[in-house]
Amino acid sequence: MFEVSLDLQAGEVIGLMGPNGSGKSTLLRVLATVDAPQAGTVSWFGRNDRRDPSVRRRLGIVLDQPAHFEQMTGYQNAWFFAGQLGLSGEVAAPRLEELFRWAGLWDARDQRAGAYSLGMKRKLSLVEALVHRPEILLLDEPTLALDYRAELDLIERIQLVSLTGAAVILATNDVHLAERICDRVLFLHQGRIIREGHVPTLLSELAGSKEVELQMHSPVPLENLRALPSVEAANVEGDTLHVVLARGTNPAEVLAVLNGTADLVSTMRVRRPNLGDLFLKLTGVALPAGE
Fold first, then answer.
1. What is the distance between the alpha carbons of residues 1 and 11, in angstroms, rounded to a whole number?
2. Among 107, 163, 166, 274, which residue's Cβ finds the most Cβ atoms within 10 Å?
């Protein structure tokens, strides 16, 4: 069962966070008019018909898999989409040049899209989503395959788009991205919103807590750790143990509980908890790092 209720305000940036299968991409596809909801209703700008061309022309969409005409050049693809979105040539040309230069694709504009790398295809999708200056921008894992410089450029562009009054919904498990640019975050788990709120409010639930990361060389007795009153959550990813400790807890208590395995700890790091730690605390499930 997929149960979501969502209102979006002009200029708001909302983050959708949850593990694979939680419903992030499904929700974005419904909002993007690609799929019809199986139940309930969706209203875009007061309209309920997802096939209404006037709805689609007010949306900017980047889904998880870039879709382009592989035999056409990057510029031809973007020009085609601009025309489909109702832009005249006079309007499209300067906008496309600015966006291609912003995305670092200007010198590759005449290359076939099929020869683009995944990162270049993602950038081309962003160009196509932004060229008509949408009122709602929908982004699925927007920083996927982007280098650090491109990520920073995208963050600045999203902030600019929101300042002009457009609303943004992005699906991401990049906690640093979400904490930096999102006004509000929705945690999705098994098709339901289990918690939502403004980022500072959500982080305040972890005020005073600590997140301990231990790199281990052997299996860890998670149940022993989770039974401690001072442990709010514990999970293992690969060879790394993540433990969220309550306010005032000495991280050394974790090592004491590990007993015989403590000498098999190669590194230990203590940091301020983030949104991923709150999700772990609420569900017992870790967010996939960087997705």
1. 30
2. 166
Q: Residue 291: how many CB atoms within 10 A of its CB?
A: 15
- Alpha-carbon distance 170 to 179, whole Å? 12
Distance CA(168)–CA(270), nearest Å, equals 33
Exposed, middle or buried: residue 186 (CB in 10 Å: 0-12, 13-18, 19+)?
buried
- Reading the block at residue 243, the tokens are 């433990």
Q: Which two tokens stand for residue 287?
A: 């967010």
Tell me how far apart the alpha carbons of residues 195 and 30 are, in angstroms, rounded to a whole number: 20
Question: What's the pTM?
Answer: 0.89
Is the Cβ–Cβ distance between 124 and 68 less than 8 Å?
yes
Question: What sections of the chain are H helices per DSSP?
Answer: 24-31, 53-56, 74-84, 89-102, 118-130, 148-163, 175-181, 199-204, 222-226, 252-258, 275-283
Q: Give dist(CA 6, CA 186) in Å, integer.
A: 9
- Per-block average pLDDT, block size 10, for the chain (291 residues)? 76 96 92 88 88 92 90 98 96 98 98 96 97 97 92 95 96 95 96 94 93 84 86 89 90 75 73 94 85 54
> Which amino acid appears at position 4 of this protein?
V
Could you tell me if 213 and 271 are in contact, meaning their C-beta atoms sit under 8 angstroms apart? yes
Q: Give the pLDDT confidence score for residue 127 in this predicted structure.
A: 97
